[in-house]
Amino acid sequence: MSLxxxxxxxxxxxxxxxxxxxxxxxxxxxxxARNLDNxxxxxxxxxxxxxxxxxxxxxxxxxxxxxxxxxMEDLSSLQKRVLVEKHLISPxxxxxxxxxxxxxxxxxxxSIMVNEEDHVRIQCLASGLQLKETLDKxxxxxxxxxxxxxxxxxxxxxxxxxxxxxxxxxxxxSVMIHLPGLVxxxxxxxxxxxxxxxxxxxxxxxxxxxxxxxxIFQISNQLTLGKSEEDIINDLDSIVHELMSREQSAxxxxxxxxxxxxxDRIFRSYGIxxxxxxxxxxxxxxxLSDVRLGIDLGYITHISKSILSELMVLTxxxxxxxxxxxxxxxxERDIRRAALIRERLEFEGTN
Length: 351
Prior knowledge:
Structural class: alpha+beta
Mean pLDDT: 89
Number of domains: 2
CATH topology of the largest domain: Creatine Kinase, Chain A, domain 2
Number of helices: 13
Largest sheet: 8 strands, antiparallel
CATH architecture of the largest domain: 2-Layer Sandwich
Strand content: 15-25%
CATH class of the largest domain: Alpha Beta
Radius of gyration: 21 Å
Strand order of the largest sheet: 2-3-4-5-1-8-10-9
């Protein structure tokens, strides 16, 4: 496995759209934050310590986990941006951790970030709603590493982390969920504050500070201290099922009260994507959201529902510039984005 493989491989396993409840939930992610005992946190340690941590984690994972080591110092800014767009590394690791690294699986469903905010961040991704299964997978990987290293752990506080909000289980579980019905029926402005009061947080597709493009939201737990892993997963799972139920009710209401307008919106968006020569990210995501809704409701039958997950990555600036072979101005990216979407839809139509 090479760096080029991760950069050039268009889709990851979690984008397949084949997981449970994938008509609403695009993907599940579980992340475990860990630090090595008696080693300073990445925010304050020295270069030599950073390199030793990378070596220790790579050695701990090498024998039993089939993962490829990518060092941030060996990557260009564009290559790191592509990995961020594929959700394989965080923006923090790409932008601030020169001596960080990532160990990534062939299917891109496992990524271990080293020397990000914490020494180790184990991340597992899956298609659809698979919180318990994804946590089990992350815990198995965690056990493999813990057999080789000593974690910073306190009997009362749990796992010790650089950020106080991760102390305890160190678990961050999230789902990427497509909620066009709730957005179109103007319910999301009421739902988001209610979710926050339950100890969960609603963000955009790339986490903290990112925009909820294409009616896609990331729902995750906010607290890790004072709750067990099982409690965190069960609470999130319960809220996601409630959101799924409300989204389905909103879609049913739209089909009953304004079916012609809904169908018109879907096919107008399909027409824009099929024919545009220039398209910006926000417009592309909105139209892709409408088309995905049309697929889920049965209006559009010749396109696979994985198209939203795929194109929300493939039309990002990093990917567009990677395929172009170099930097592109904003207008050039908009032209290439439109061409890529047209080609993708044409491919679906002929296959």
